[in-house]
Amino acid sequence: MRIRRSIFAALVAMCSIAHSGEPEMATVPDGKYVPLFRGEKDAKEIAVSAFQLDERPVTNGESLVFVRENPKWQRSQVKRLFADERYLAHWSGDLNLGKADGAQPVTNVSWFAAKSYAAWREKRLPTTVEWEFAAGAGFTIADGAKDAEFQQAVARWYSTPSPATLPAAGSGRANFYGIRDLHGLVWEWTSDFNSAIVTGDARGDTGLERNLFCGAGSLGAKDTANFSGFMRFGMRSSLKASYTVHNLGFRCAKDL
């Protein structure tokens, strides 16, 4: 019995290590983003400079390496100012994934932890504008609004409950830019706060970090009939930077 347990533990460790490296990054070119909400005096479009975005969300296995090398972000060590009591609650311990698969996207992680992870990788979190712009790409063309198959998939994802066991990060179909799982897997943190109404470069905006909110599965919202867009806005406005949620993860970005 002890031998079997040792073999099982070794297999779990191997799985974690196999998914502890950095994902490939895809280049998202220059473009224009149309915000879901804007004031009367706000610009109708926001210029988006080219950037790089992880092809998939960060995994449990990668996060395990991060907390091992940065003990202050371990579950028993993190300060409540930076993560609530549900932080990494699906893990068995500080350095033990337990039943959490190393290949699955990490969840139950706060904005502060996600930001620190990105900095540790010498990257950053994407702005909401960048995230939404990348996620607005269809499967075969850059403008997802003109990709009927993509539109159908988005509608299906938003009407289907999340599975009890999340698929592996990166298992979804790639979009036009080669990026996977922007839809249909987990919600994802972005760097800026309540940015559905931001009309400038979000990296130039200022605000208290405790007011930062997250981004979620996206499609460039342009009218009041965009139900999924309002779902995203509602999700973002309900969160603060210390919150952790069972279906909220993140991915990293980098300037070109």
Short summary:
This protein is α+β, with helices and mostly antiparallel strands. It is built from 6 helices and 8 strands.
Notes on the structure:
- The chain is an alpha+beta fold and 256 residues long.
- The chain has one domain (2-255): Alpha-Beta Complex (paralog of FGE (formylglycine-generating enzyme)), CATH 3.90.1580.
- It has 6 helices and 8 strands.
- The chain has helices spanning 2-18, 60-69, 111-120, 128-135, 148-158, 227-237, and strands at residues 25-28, 31-33, 46-48, 51-54, 187-189, 214-215, 248-249, 253-255.
- A 3-stranded antiparallel sheet has the order 1-4-8. Strands 6-5-7 form a 3-stranded mixed sheet.
- The longest helix has 17 residues, at 2-18.
- The radius of gyration is 18 Å and the shape is globular.
Helix content: 25-40%
CATH class: Alpha Beta
| Strand tally | 8
CATH topology: paralog of FGE (formylglycine-generating enzyme)
Give the neighbour order of strands across the main sheet: 1-4-8
Key attributes of the depicted protein:
256 residues; alpha+beta; paralog of FGE (formylglycine-generating enzyme); three-stranded antiparallel sheet; three-stranded mixed sheet; 6 helices; 8 strands; 9% strand; globular
Topology:
Blueprint: H1 2-18, E1 25-28, E2 31-33, E3 46-48, E4 51-54, H2 60-69, H3 111-120, H4 128-135, H5 148-158, E5 187-189, E6 214-215, H6 227-237, E7 248-249, E8 253-255
Parallel strand pairs: 5-7
Antiparallel strand pairs: 1-4, 2-3, 4-8, 5-6
Helix pairs in contact: 1-2
